[in-house]
Design goal:
Elements: E1 15-18, E2 21-24, H1 36-55, H2 59-69, E3 79-81, E4 84-89, E5 98-102, E6 108-112, H3 114-117, E7 123-130, E8 136-143, E9 150-155, E10 161-166, E11 174-176, E12 182-188, E13 203-209, E14 218-221, E15 229-235, E16 241-248, E17 255-260, E18 268-273, H4 275-278, E19 282-286, E20 292-296, E21 304-308, E22 319-322, E23 330-336, E24 345-352, E25 355-362, E26 368-372, E27 379-385, E28 392-399, E29 402-410, E30 415-418, E31 426-429, E32 431-439, E33 445-453, E34 463-467, H5 481-488, E35 492-497, H6 506-510, H7 517-533, E36 542-547, H8 549-560, E37 567-571, H9 590-593, H10 599-608, E38 622-628, H11 637-649, E39 656-661, H12 671-689, E40 700-703
Parallel strand pairs: 34-35, 34-36, 36-37, 37-38, 38-39
Antiparallel strand pairs: 1-2, 3-4, 4-5, 5-6, 7-8, 8-9, 9-10, 11-12, 12-13, 13-14, 15-16, 16-17, 17-18, 19-20, 20-21, 21-22, 23-24, 24-25, 25-26, 27-28, 28-29, 29-30, 31-40, 32-33, 33-35
Helix pairs in contact: 2-5, 2-12, 7-8
């Protein structure tokens, strides 16, 4: 086989001695993105990618398919405050979504349009938090490739900025106090207090009063003893109590602190939950009587809902309201306690084998009142209601053929209907969606979601297999423009629910993290082998795709079993698991993967680390590594080092390519760039599996966004 010519990459003799174990790292020099040698090498890789892309037969057809399948409109439920509804909208041609406010008559205004702030389209609307009265809204915009993220406060009536910016608030939580004159938020300490190169979070919880300079904001929680902690904030409806969740990175357990707010600037916190002692996640919300509603996996791997007195920190005193269902993990719950209701209610969303259910319960005793009908066998997310009290619930629903669409449940009338103006626009193929089970090598059953053309003949077909398998994140039959375009061309799109995810609850996550992370990789390979063995696809028709930690999954899988795959796409992956803690936010992920600073955990990491398991002379599949030039989450060095290692080692003639994207971030970019990336991924996968979109295999279903009518926001006292 003819060996492709790749840009020359110097292989250094760097070998690091870790606990007496030699760990070669020949491409460590590629970690310095400012080095002229690295810039020249990366520019040569850019030229190589463009040359290969020019030869792909169907790149324009794939771009057209992606554009048709992309959805536009409202994709998430509104935030309702009083008689006002706050929502985000993105229409066809928009690079970023806009923040709108809709009044009780259905009249709407644009509060924030990021393109007016930055015509280049690189500034996005990141988050927004209306005050309880709806008179003010805190808004956060973010420039993709920049680490900073500021909060501005707007007057909702006039749209004018009345406060801010509050700096360094990236990934913050925010909780308003009643009256709309102050809120708690989370921000990083000033840059001058952080050592150069220190990527740890160094966050503090602060109280901000409208009109005061941010430097005067009182620090109410957090310190040097918790440099990697994430904080979540919840204030009771009467403003008398504050709860803070504290978690070291995306850990499987967290602490809960509760304080009375006699003095909001100096709350006295009581440690209500010791995460280390209970070994569980606990998410608190205040009820109207001052007690706490807890969603937890303590003594319930698939989750339960409890009620507790905020002054009693003993988990044995928690009263179970909604018991665990071992077959249906709890996703989220929502209290409905508006004055129009005869009694307070609890809405609970679960996932039974990946398919959402919604049930309504009596809040007093948890008694099941009814199962709520849903539009189909799909996914419910983002339950929301009016603040501070409401009898309506909004949620997002999607499935394989239905883009995210907003629905409203009215507990007084007992009706569920699509929210006015919430339709999305796009053309989606008729897709057959189903869940199947296959066995891993150790006998464990793994769920796969299969999306195929809606016809009887099911294979073998060109197949794109997706996976994630980390941080307890469950895979679901979501709508995905990439999947819709692939299936519309006649292929099979499959999702493997491997261990390390959260599809089967806490134990499923635990069995695929830390010392067991290798199981996620082997599960994925076993799922791929099952697709081949059952005749659904062939080795020459099978491509795999993963993003972030999913990029680690598919890269590790292909390095272990290269003979299974025709092509691999890894978007923003982790690849060097010995040094992942040195890049981006990797230092906060040791609970998930382990740390190379500990001898035993180093061996875990080396057992599957893609970069360290590349073998010279192996005919590897075609690889496409994609990533932002500046990736503040995983770090761009994973892509450059792994690409160089595979280009040097492969004994085959399939290309190893790197697609870099400037002016974007790890998981967010302007809409046109997102669609262009998706089209390139599909064109690459189609090129190496034989799938072409030029003759669509399925008919298309047309949906169009409708104008926003009267929003149905409840009037005061209704």
């Amino acid at each position: 086989m003819a060996r492709l010519s790749y840009p020359a990459a110097w292989r250094s003799d760097v070998v690091e001695d870790l606990f007496g174990f030699p760990v070669p790292d020949p491409y460590r020099w590629l970690e310095d993105g400012d080095d002229p040698r690295v810039r020249d090498w990366a520019a040569a890789q850019d030229r190589l990618f463009r040359a290969h892309r020019d030869e792909w037969h169907d790149k324009e057809s794939w771009a057209s398919s992606v554009d048709e399948a992309s959805s536009f409109g409202l994709s998430e439920p509104p935030m309702v405050r009083g008689s006002l509804m706050f929502l985000a909208e993105q229409l066809r041609g928009d690079e970023q979504r806009r923040l709108l406010v809709v009044d009780a008559e259905g009249d709407r205004r644009v509060l924030v349009d990021p393109v007016e702030i930055d015509p280049s389209g690189h500034t996005g609307l990141y988050a927004w938090w209306p005050s309880r009265e709806g008179e003010r809204v805190a808004v956060q915009t973010e420039v993709a490739e920049q680490p900073g993220s500021d909060i501005m406060v707007l007057d909702v009536r006039t749209g004018e900025v009345v406060d801010g910016p509050l700096p360094r608030a990236r990934n913050t939580s925010l909780a308003w106090l009643p009256g709309g004159d102050a809120f708690y938020y989370v921000s990083r300490v000033p840059d001058e207090e952080v050592a150069p190169g220190d990527m740890r979070l160094h966050r503090r919880v602060r109280l901000h009063r409208i009109g005061s300079p941010w430097k005067a904001d009182a620090v109410v929680f957090g310190g040097e003893d918790a440099p990697d902690h994430y904080y979540g904030l919840t204030v009771s409806a009467d403003g008398r109590h504050l709860a803070i969740t504290a978690m070291a990175g995306p850990s499987s357990q967290n602490d809960v602190y509760v304080a009375e707010l006699a003095d909001p600037e100096a709350p006295h916190f009581v440690k209500f939950v010791d995460g280390g002692a209970v070994g569980a996640r606990v998410l608190p919300r205040f009820l109207a009587d001052g007690t706490l509603l807890l969603v937890t996996d303590h003594q319930a791997p698939c989750g339960r809902v409890c009620v507790a007195d905020g002054r009693d920190a003993d988990p044995a005193a928690w009263r179970t309201l909604i018991a665990e269902d071992p077959q249906a993990p709890v996703d989220e719950c929502l209290v409905l306690d508006g004055p129009a209701l005869a009694r307070p209610l609890l809405l609970v969303a679960r996932a039974r084998h990946g398919i959402s259910t919604l049930t309504l319960h009596d809040l007093a005793d948890g008694r099941l009142l009814t199962d709520l009908p849903l539009p189909g066998a799909g996914v419910v997310s983002s339950l929301r209601t009016s603040i501070p009290h409401g009898h309506q619930a909004w949620f997002s629903y999607c499935d394989a053929t239905t883009p995210p669409t907003v629905y409203r449940y009215d507990a007084v009338r007992g009706t569920t209907e699509r929210e006015a103006g919430a339709a999305t626009a796009g053309r989606t193929p008729e897709i057959r969606s189903r869940a199947v089970r296959c066995r891993a090598g150790d006998g464990t059953e793994i769920t796969l979601f299969l999306f195929t053309p809606d016809e009887e003949d099911q294979g073998p077909r060109p197949t794109l297999l997706y996976g994630y398998g980390s941080f307890g994140m469950p895979m679901r039959p979501w709508f995905f423009p990439l999947a819709a375009a692939w299936v519309g061309a006649g292929g099979t799109y499959a999702v493997a629910c491997v261990r390390g995810g959260g599809e089967e609850g806490r134990h499923w996550h635990d069995s695929g993290r830390g010392p067991h992370k290798h199981r996620a990789v082997s599960d994925f390979n076993d799922a791929a082998a099952w697709l081949i063995e059952t005749g659904r696809t062939t080795r020459d028709q099978l491509a795999i795709y993963g993003q972030s930690a999913g990029g680690l999954l598919v890269t590790a899988a292909a390095v272990q079993r290269p003979e299974l795959y025709a092509a691999v796409v890894a978007e923003g992956p982790l690849c060097d698991m010995v040094r992942y803690e040195q890049f981006g936010l990797g230092c906060t992920w040791t609970d998930e993967f382990g740390s190379a600073s500990r001898p035993e955990q180093l061996q875990w990491l080396l057992s599957y680390s893609p970069y360290h398991n590349v073998t010279p002379g192996v005919p590897y599949p075609a690889f496409l590594f994609t990533g932002a030039v500046t990736d503040l989450q995983t770090g761009e060095a994973h892509v450059t080092k792994m690409c160089a290692a595979l280009q040097h080692a492969t004994g085959g003639d399939r290309p190893i390519l790197m697609r870099r994207e400037p002016d974007t971030a790890h998981a967010a970019s302007p809409a046109s760039k997102e669609r262009a990336l998706t089209a390139d991924i599909l064109a690459f996968a189609g090129e190496h599996t034989g799938l072409s979109p030029r003759k669509p295999a399925t008919s298309l279903r047309e949906t169009a966004a409708e104008p926003l009518r009267k929003a149905g926001v409840p009037q005061a006292g209704s």
